[in-house]
Amino acid sequence: MSKTIQNRIVYDKELILRLQRGDEWAFQLMVRRFRTKIFSIAFGITLDTEESQDIMQEVFLQVYRTIGDFRGDASLATWLHRITVNRSLNWKRRWARRFKWLHVSTDSTDGLPAAEPESDLPSPEIRVANAQTRQQIDKALKMLPEQARTIFVLRELEGLAYEEIADAIGIKLGTVRSRLFHARKRLKEILQPLVEEEE
Amino acid sequence: MRYRFRCLLVVVFLTLSWFGTADSLLAQESCRISVDTILAARNDNVVDPKLKRHIGELQSMFNYTSYRLLSSESLNLSVGQSGMVSLPGDRRLKITPQRIHGSRADIALLMMKQTRTVFETQVQLLNRGNLFVGGPAYQNGNLIFKISSAY
Amino acid sequence: MTHPDSNVCDEMLLDRYLDGDVDAGERVQMEAHIAACRQCRRQVAALEAFSQNLNDRVQHAVDSVDFVALEKQVLNKALRQYRSRGGLSRFVASLKYIIPATVTAGLLLFFTYSNYVLKPPPVPSAIINSFTGSMSSVMIFETPETRQTILWYTEETDVESEPNAV
User: How far apart are CA B20 and CA B12, in angstroms?
Assistant: First the structure.
């Protein structure tokens, strides 16, 4: 085991102990360390900025509430992945959000996040091209089944190994492989017209 | 420990409920009759210490200036059972509880002087209530009989 | 798993190759195949481009978020939760004893008050149902406030009776 991994394990153990003692500073450290990662995973699954922010908060609050029950059978990161994936997959079942998911237009700029910052690129054409690309990404991801999209996001965004993905979602290694395979297969079908268009 | 404590609370609750309802639900079969003989007079201001508790009551009812407790007797009588209390001046009071219901006891009282019946009365006496019977002359004052029941 | 014919497209192997989940032999195999197979080459390129675009897409969303403010929000909520949880859970745990103890205390107070403190109800202390006797006079009355019943009689032979005692 490399020194970096060993150091991380020690660091994690210390952090967890402090969290279990209710150390506020330790909680702040954990939030700072994992906030972007959790948001990214939530966004990759939900494709909704506001919802992803809510999910991020809920994940940290849940950790704060239940850190006493954490037995250390997985790493802190894996535990956070698990909670984030569960909450992100459950968000669609909330009644308030479903209509927004189904009715976002992919042909207009309405589909863009509300709080889009001003781009620092001078060319409007590039901005439009980027926006179109984002819409294409969103469209393609939305066409993937939920479970497949989750695995794809964990693999491509977070670079998690198959074992880590299996741990995070609570499925077998073989299932990870097959779902990833089918996700890519479906994506290839979706992207096929775009590839041919470019050629 | 917690289980026993909770059981204790339940027992206390049930006991208190029992006492609260027992009076009204169960028929009483006996009662305790007390007869205090008081000599009330106007020639002095003596108040018997034993009557301190009742002096306010007595003074509100009678305009005597002195009250002396001559005797105090208690009888535990079952319904239908008679008891006799000896009173000053060769008097006797026969007491017979006849029925105890709700908050009152039906009691028959028979006052006798020597061999003669002075009066007979049927009263409904409140539980822990008093009946003041007076006032045959005696010595330098009058006798007041404080009759009370408890059940 | 190495396919014997490098000219045949093996989608599963390609997948594992993209994830780095191949041995040295399989890697060489796939690299040779991709170099020769236009279709696989296109697919690899498309998937890699998509992956890059996905990362850019998410990064774009991350850049739009004020994480400092969010962090503050989370910390405040966590602290609030901690404070209320401590007080609330202690309170809830104590209810198991508070409720029966309160009920018992209430009953005790009620019985004590009604039996020892509360004035008797304003009913006559005695009700005379019947009276017979040989006497000069008899009066039955009750005191106005406490309604104590007084039976005052004068015996026939009583020469010192006090009709004005009350």
Answer: 12
In total, how many domains does chain A have? 1
Give, in order, the Cα–Cα distances in Å from C125 to each of B30, C112, C135, C143.
Answer: 19, 21, 24, 10
Would you state the pLDDT for residue B9?
72
Please check whether residue A45 lies inside any domain of the structure: yes
Domain-located, residue A181: no
Confidence of residue C135 (pLDDT cuts 50, 70, 90): confident
Q: Does C126 touch chain B (CB under 8 A)?
A: yes
The answer to whether position A167 is within a domain reads: no
Selected for mutation to probe chain C from B12, B17, B144 (highest C CB count within 10 Å) is B12
How many angstroms separate the CA of residue C86 from the nearest CA in chain B?
A: 21
- φ/ψ of B38, rounded to 5, equals -115, 135
Domains of chain C: which residue ranges? 11-63, 66-118, 122-161
pLDDT class of A116 with cuts at 50, 70, 90: very low
Burial class (CB within 10 angstroms; exposed 0-12, middle 13-18, buried 19+) of B133: buried
Lookup: tokens for A31: 């939030």
Share of chain C above pLDDT 90, in %: 24
More reliable by pLDDT, C143 or C90: C143
Report chain C residues whose CB lies below 8 A from the CB of B142: 161-162, 165
Q: How far apart are the first and last CA of chain A?
A: 47
Compare all CA atoms of chain C with the CA of B20 and give the residue at the minimum distance. Answer: C111
ipTM of predicted assembly, 2 dp: 0.80
Q: Is the pLDDT of residue B133 over 90?
A: yes
Q: In the predicted model, what is the mean pLDDT of chain B?
A: 85
Residue A46 lies in a domain: yes
Chain C within 8 Å of B14 (Cβ-Cβ)? Answer: no
* Structural domain of A22: 1-94
Confidence check: pLDDT of B32 > 90: yes
Contact A162 C21 (CB under 8 A): yes
